[in-house]
């Protein structure tokens, strides 16, 4: 019984982490209809920035996290302004090729700079180990992830639903032409959203070094997970990807624990079945665009 | 002349063999005799060319974007490997066909998943299928040999007469023969009414359905055929290298394949062949400069190609040859890449 609860807890932490990593992609892929396979590269960048700051320069872990966010967001906005925005109107094939190219470049570049082995971030003692609540083992680090990601999710939902920027973004996504006719600077909104999504990915990358493992092949290894979150979750709100991440996280952890030999098999089968059953995602809008 | 016969006339003229095509194949054959010390890499190029031609059939002619074409390559590779290892079918040509058929069955089964949904769903589903097969191959490592791959494959002589030699000479001409035969078949198919209907579907599925083309059935047919081709390419890989390991399913393989087609251009069959040559040469050059980081440069090539625009790039490359052709043979002989991507 307790092992089930512990697995559930780990699964939730894993799912939350996936959500933070992938929700930027939900915006670019789902809302802006841009296939960005290089999303994992931004996460990796954040992870490596955090690693360098903490391990080499002795920054405290919690001070390095915001910087991971900022650096990934900065890389994101530079690339968006110089490269990505030329490709919004291109075919999906072009977008796929372009972002695969970027991914390959990022993999080789990080390999060149930091070496190809897996890196670890030195965690403060307060985050290590686990404690028991009624016999259920709760990892401190995972608890912190749940807290941070939970707060982020609530914050994102509030921003999207309540603020002026949120309504602008929703308008720009629903109908870019009408939105720009109403005086909304659509490219700017998209650029900002893109950068924010990259920042979140960077933060997720920094947080995930401990759980998912951080090495130069991160963007390729986890690309499929991000895509699953977005395609299964749909793009009508951030609730869809959120639920999809939780499902994926719990499913993956449970799958690895109870049927270790089947490994990733469960996840891929789940994805294909869901895509065939509901091509617009479990929680997606049914209207085709 | 009525419209129908006009279309037929144009289609027939397109299908006729051009002088350039014959020259192309003669050059390829000549390479086999001119560079006897380079058989291994040339065989590699031929395999890649066949694999790229397979993707061209669905991408260039039917407009299906696939990120998991390595699935069929892998199935073909393992099928050929297992057949040879357990001595089920010893004769390479028969084993080749059997391996192609195995991939074809998978292609037929998965085509129903692929024809559903739009580009994005297709990307995901094809990618998912390839990853699924990779996971399966890893899971059943007692059959597939896991990460070590199938080892100790010994190939019997081709048609019982020509043994594989260590310099790869037999392997090269064997691959070339297979490629040429399959090319002829593909050429016949894409110029047939069936091939024309595929192009109609690619340009506008709705309109194609309105004039009475059974869209889904045509897509299933071409997807299955492409799977067969990819399976044969995979089987050639196993037969000429005598190994089959998990990396036949790798995502890199599907991604590289895209690059091959992008370099060569889609929708005229030669794209895969030309692209394969250029891609391998680029790879050789990059890996001699930076053995470990050649992927960076491959990535850069992709990014640049997309940013410049594929159409513009091909126009630029063909500009000089066309200028010459125009002088010698007149306007009509000008070469152009039919760039008709979605």
TrEMBL record, chain A:
One of its GO terms (cellular component) is plasma membrane. It comes from the Bacteria. The chain crosses the membrane at residues 12-32, 61-84, 96-114, 141-161, 182-203, 223-250, 262-279. CDD domains: TM_PBP1_LivH_like. It is a multi-pass membrane protein. Its main location: membrane. GO terms for biological process: amino acid transport. Pfam families: BPD_transp_2. It is found in: Cell membrane. Keywords: Amino-acid transport, Cell membrane, Membrane, Transmembrane, Transmembrane helix, Transport. One of its GO terms (molecular function) is transmembrane transporter activity. Belongs to the binding-protein-dependent transport system permease family. LivHM subfamily. This is ABC transporter permease. It comes from Bradyrhizobium japonicum.
From TrEMBL, chain B:
It is a multi-pass membrane protein. Keywords: Cell membrane, Membrane, Transmembrane, Transmembrane helix. It is found in: Cell membrane. InterPro entries: ABC_transp_permease, LivM-like. The chain crosses the membrane at residues 22-41, 48-73, 93-115, 172-190, 219-237, 257-282, 294-313. It comes from the Bacteria. PANTHER family: ABC TRANSPORTER ATP-BINDING PROTEIN, HIGH-AFFINITY BRANCHED-CHAIN AMINO ACID TRANSPORT SYSTEM PERMEASE. This is Branched-chain amino acid ABC transporter permease.
